[in-house]
Write a structure and sequence with these properties.
The complex is a heterodimer. Helix content of chain A is 0%, strand content 56%. Chain A is an all-beta fold. By secondary structure, chain B is an all-beta fold. In chain B, the strands form two sheets. In chain B, strands 2, 4, 5, 9, 10 and 11 form a six-stranded mixed sheet that branches. A five-stranded antiparallel sheet of chain B has the order 1-3-8-7-6, with no helix packed on it. Classes of the chains: A mainly beta, B mainly beta.
């Protein structure tokens, strides 16, 4: 089974802090994604990576950056956290090689609160 | 911007009842997925439909892709409390596309 893990289930940070959210997948998937999920707004794509060191902006990249130095790891960085970044953050992976590229496997999520 | 509209947004029913959740768009999708998400967890893929008019069954769940590939439905027969969760539809806009458009979800509660 595909396993996608996220470094923290719950995180509380202060405004202005630099925040790192880590995601690791164990199935050699090429694609990795970061979403945020907010009530009434659904899942919104922040960034997407289709290969090591490659990244593409999603629908709401402002205030975020990403890093993918190794195939299995995709990090989301909040350079200076703000209260409007309080949300549930979900990481996902998919593989156009082994599976259908459109079938994504999600981690358990990180609920981030910025005070 | 391609959108997927899900309805209803909330649904609360008694155990044993049947229900249908709808996912509609004005855009054509090459495939459509349904996910279920439990509180505090990430979404889990239930099914992918790819052909217009396709029907797939997963135990008591029946998924249908519209003939024009713009809409889909999820029907649950004899709902059980274990079916409680957030149901999300997601569409791929191009063949083999990695990026998905998600609906906002239907929150289903099945009361014992």
């Amino acid at each position: 089974d595909v396993k996608v893990t996220q470094s923290s289930r719950y995180l509380v940070k202060r405004t202005g802090e630099k925040v790192f959210l880590e995601c690791v997948q164990d199935m050699d998937h090429e694609n990795m994604f970061w979403y945020r999920q907010d009530p009434g707004l659904g899942l919104r794509l922040i960034y997407f990576s289709y290969d090591v060191k490659m990244k593409e902006k999603g629908d709401i990249p402002e205030g975020y950056s990403v890093s993918r130095e190794k195939k299995e790891r995709f990090s989301l960085i909040l350079e200076s956290a703000s209260t409007n970044q309080t949300s549930m953050y979900l990481c996902a992976s998919s593989s156009p090689v082994f599976l259908r590229a459109d079938e994504q496997f999600f981690g358990p999520g990180t609920r981030l609160t910025v005070l | 911007t391609q959108l997927l509209e899900q309805s209803p947004q909330f649904l609360s029913i008694q155990e044993g009842e049947n229900l249908t959740v709808y996912c509609n768009s004005s855009s054509v999708f090459s495939s459509l997925q349904w996910y279920r998400q439990e509180p505090g967890e990430g979404p889990v893929l239930l099914v992918t439909v790819v052909t217009g008019g396709e029907v797939k069954k997963l135990k008591r769940l029946t998924f249908q892709f519209g003939d024009a590939r713009k809409d889909s439905s999820l029907h649950i027969t004899a709902a059980q409390p274990g079916d409680t969760g957030l149901y999300l539809c997601a569409g791929a806009t191009q063949g083999g596309s990695e990026k998905l458009v998600f609906g906002k979800g239907t929150k289903l509660t099945v009361n014992p």
